[in-house]
Specification:
rSAM, eight-stranded mixed sheet, iron-sulfur cluster binding, pyruvate-formate lyase- activating enzyme, binds iron/sulfur cluster, rSAM_sf, 12 helices
Length: about 290
């Protein structure tokens, strides 16, 4: 179940993918171009394979990893651990239960998802304490924008409700505005009602290849076609950073890879880049209704 990261995912020793494939099929998802998807029959977004989890074998695997050193786990790197089928099959829940049986066997688990199903496991995740963080993706507050870029992803309101549940349950959370999509002026305030921390990421540094993977997917055409091209620029990250810092405070807003590290490894974010002119300190353009 554990795959050594070989350093490509900074801060993590292993990735853990309970599924193969992802039915959310986000248009900007670069996993579709990676070998795990390229050599799999079927178009990305149309399939999900269910891994069988041998609980004893996984527990042994964890212990073996622990004997070799630190065990920081990123779940998941090439799927979403809360596929719709998780509500019936509970593969991710099985993994949480195994981790709960031996808290000394790992250092940290980041649960990266865009599904409100994660709230169904709030009790288990809370029991993991500071060893677990739910990073829930919400890239925009506009359902119209959400449908243009991620038509098969769960609605924003459902994700907001899930975050509220997790917060009420005392689970450590953050929102991953990743990638930043066109959003409205009240988006930071909206997110502040359900989480304390935010990570902002964009295509240009966030796709692991300086934007080349995103460029290969021709994502810019979706902006041009929708007359949103002013958002498809490196300046969007800096403008969004200003807006979110004004609402969350600088110590609660992270950028790019830094925001996905285990919290204990994160660097204090730099102050705003001086290259930004004061007249660039503007609110992002309004998203379409
Ligand atoms: S949810 Fe994640 S893994 Fe699934 S398609 Fe979207 S970006 Fe890719």
């Amino acid at each position: 179940m554990l795959t050594k990261t070989n350093g490509y995912l900074a801060g993590y020793d292993y990735t853990l993918n309970p599924y193969v494939g992802c039915v959310y099929g986000c248009h900007y998802c670069y996993v579709r171009a990676l070998p795990v998807a390229r050599f799999h029959p079927g178009d990305w977004g149309t399939y999900v394979d269910i891994k069988q989890i041998d609980e004893r074998a996984f527990a042994r695997e964890l212990q073996s990893a622990r004997r070799r050193g630190s065990v920081n786990i990123f779940m998941s790197s090439s799927t979403d651990p809360y596929q719709p089928v998780e509500s019936r099959l509970h593969r991710t829940r099985q993994i949480l239960d195994i981790l709960l049986q031996d808290l000394d066997a790992f250092d940290f688990l980041l649960i990266q998802t865009r599904s409100p199903l994660v709230a169904n496991d709030a009790d288990r995740i809370r029991a993991l304490g500071k060893k677990a963080l739910v990073s829930l993706t919400i890239e925009t507050d506009s359902e119209d924008v959400r449908k243009r870029f991620t038509p098969h992803a769960p609605p924003i309101a459902a994700r907001m409700r899930a975050l509220a549940t997790l917060q009420d349950e005392g689970v450590q959370t953050q929102v991953a505005v990743s990638p930043i999509l066109p959003f409205g002026p009240q988006f930071p305030e909206l997110l502040r009602t359900v989480t304390q921390d935010v990570v902002l990421d964009d295509y240009f540094t966030g796709d692991g290849a300086n934007g080349r993977r995103t460029a290969a997917l021709q994502i810019h055409r979706r902006y041009h076609a929708d007359e949103l091209s002013k958002w498809y620029t490196k300046a969007t990250l800096h403008r969004a950073y200003q807006r979110f810092v004004a609402v969350f405070g600088q110590q609660h807003v992270f950028r790019n890879q830094n925001g996905f590290l285990p919290p204990a490894m994160r660097r204090a974010e730099d102050r705003l880049r001086p290259s930004l002119r004061p007249d660039e300190a503007i609110q992002p353009p309004e998203a379409p209704k």
